[in-house]
Design a protein that fits this description.
The protein contains six helices and 16 strands. It is an alpha+beta fold. Strands 1-2-5-8-4 form a five-stranded mixed β-sheet. The chain has a five-stranded mixed β-sheet with strand order 3-14-13-12-11. It has a two-stranded antiparallel ribbon with strand order 6-7.
Amino acid sequence: MSEPAPGPTNSITDVAGLRVGHATRREPGWLTGTTVVLTPDGGAVCGVDVRGGGPGTRETDLLDPRNLVDRVHAVLLGGGSAFGLAAADGIVASLYAAGIGWPVGAPGQVVPIVPGAILFDLARGGQFGHTPGAPEGVAAYAAACAAATDRAPEAGSVGAATGAAAGGLRGGIGSASVVLPSGITVAALVAVNAVGSAVDPATGELYAVRHGLGGEFASVGRPGDEDVAAWRARAEPPGASARQPATATTIGVIATDATLGKAHCQKVAGMGQDGMARAINPVHTLFDGDTLFALATGDRPEPDLAQLYALMEAAGSCVTRAIGHAMLAAESVDRTADGGVALRSWRDTFPSGARG
């Protein structure tokens, strides 16, 4: 039997039918954006798990297994705090124009179902009121429609993670996948914006790297003592960035091509939160709104019990690994001239550990 291995792109687009689009706003005064994960036109079964103490979400109640609607047509991940939920309006309008949605009457009478979650990045670009809205949702949708399905979506400081920070470093968006021996594909896309840190304070290593699959993190080494000492000298104490409630939040989407119901999707999302806890410390705090969605496209049969166990275990692993890729792809930024923030990337903070 074959061993688990990353899919062809090691990203969420390894789940056939899923597409990802980003709208990125990084002009003067701006440092925010929107990301959309589009399902196949017929939708996908979806579940959600919210662990953080300050969530900002949309359309999550309908994902309860007791409720009627069993398909969603896209998932929004956004910056802009509560204001950023308005980007879903542009995604909904775009889906409706394409004739995609939950049927509620005659042909063409559909309601697109777009749950979503946002992270806090207000004023990091300099202007508190510069937040994503419907135009960014339209742009992200268009980008997803135009995206190549045989390539990984852009990672790093883009889309929902444009203004992200994690433990005093620049956050990012990243992805990872695995193909299980059963043939089932599991993947995750995560925007990392946490009060906690993705870095081991003793060594400067990213927690996620030690959980890599195969050689995916082979180019990442242990930082030298000089880099670690310099980082410690300027690092803020834990929680220093959380000056007000709900000023962080890590959000993401887990996906599989297996056939699952809403209850099992909810459990998959919950297992994904365990993967978040392996990559960020502390996690799920009062200042984070950590939220994960899980999508099941149903291209493959319903798994048996052993396969379901392996799928759920893989969900956590993919989230951990996606967080590692997000942090590695992030880029340093300095918006202090505009009244915003300055954030160094992990690679620029620990150059001795970044071999490639």
